[in-house]
Design a protein that fits this description.
There is one protein chain. This protein has a single domain (14-316), classed as Tetracycline Repressor, domain 2 (Orthogonal Bundle). It has 15 helices and no strands. The chain has helices at residues 22-26, 32-37, 44-64, 70-99, 117-135, 140-155, 166-174, 177-186, 191-212, 216-222, 227-231, 235-257, 261-280, 286-294, 296-316. 46% of the residues are buried.
């Protein structure tokens, strides 16, 4: 790593990172730009990528009436971290000129010149290789399915230049794990993971619309597009619609695998959480938007906990 480090001083905390996060408090000064490049100071993205994977693995376990495989969960965790890191680097490489013009992102390592593009590419390839190593642990069907998602990932960063629906493309990419967990266990596909996938896509469109409201003024000036700009003052109604799709599709997936009361209790708690998000959202307040966006980690955890409990008690009965 020393050979590709730059000598540019690290800046202060990035605007969308939590105050006094572990990178700002404990990381060596020379490593901070690299850790910020992969969003290690903002792990929420890893969780949002990981939850659909874990949902799917738990859903498949419920369908097979077996316990969730901890090794499979660990593989998905490593894969989510590595691919989210690679994706962040790829996105920042493509957007480095735009990021330099947006207040929230202008201090990112590539936009501010703390890390060179060539060095970032090297690190991105390292994480891609880690992700590939994880993918190769699965069966042939799951491996092929994993490769299918690459095209969506590659085109996503360009979508905000051509459509008001980049959040939908992100949803297609970030929700892919909803298919992978099932495929890793059954070596095939079924209605249940497809319903889970559609629900996860709706969820992603919702939370990323909230996130996009932080940059809507800068995006409008730069000619970039987003659902935040498209929905405008009707955002709450659109979010309610997408979150309704999420809950309905997750319920359909549960019905398909014969889920029990623990799953539906978790789903009800998750629905309550999403209602809170929509009802308390203030699209004119960036801090409010950021906190509501981050709270989706809680939603993912609620749904997974409900599934885990349902798997456990279902297997015990």
């Amino acid at each position: 790593m020393r050979a590709i480090e730059t000598e540019v001083s690290a800046t202060g905390p990035l605007q969308d990172a939590k105050p006094r996060n572990w990178v700002d408090r404990y990381a060596p000064r020379r490593l901070k730009p690299w850790l910020r490049l992969i969003r290690a100071d903002r792990p929420i993205g890893v969780w949002l990528l990981l939850w659909p994977c874990w949902w799917s693995a738990a859903l498949a376990a419920r369908a097979s009436e077996e316990f969730v495989d901890p090794f499979l969960l660990a593989l998905f965790a490593i894969g989510a971290f590595s691919m989210r890191s690679a994706g962040c680097i790829y996105n920042d490489i493509l957007d480095r000129d735009i990021d330099a013009k947006v207040e929230r992102t202008r201090e990112r390592p590539l936009a501010s010149g703390q890390i060179s593009t060539k060095s970032a590419i090297v690190l991105m390839l390292v994480f891609c290789l880690i992700g590939l190593a994880v993918l190769l642990q699965f069966n042939a069907f799951a491996i092929a399915l994993g490769f299918v998602s690459v095209g969506i990932v590659l085109v996503y960063p360009m979508m905000k230049r051509v459509t008001f629906w980049p959040q939908a493309v992100l949803g297609l990419a970030f929700s892919w794990g909803a298919l992978m967990g099932w495929a890793a266990i059954f070596s095939g596909m079924s209605f249940a993971p497809l319903a889970l996938y559609i629900g996860a896509v709706g969820w992603t469109i919702g939370y990323d619309t909230i996130y996009a409201h932080q940059d809507k003024e800068d995006d409008a000036v730069l000619g970039l597009k987003s659902t935040a700009l498209l929905f405008g003052r009707h955002t709450a109604a659109w979010l309610a619609a997408f979150y309704t799709v999420t809950i309905a599709c997750l319920a359909a997936a549960g019905v398909q695998v014969g889920a029990g009361n623990w799953f539906y209790a978790g789903l009800a708690a998750g629905a309550t959480h999403l209602i809170w998000q929509v009802s308390t959202l203030d699209i004119s307040d960036p801090n409010n938007c950021l906190e509501r966006f981050r709270s989706n980690h809680g939603f993912g955890a609620i749904i997974f906990t409900g599934l885990l409990l349902d798997v456990f008690f279902g297997a015990m009965s």
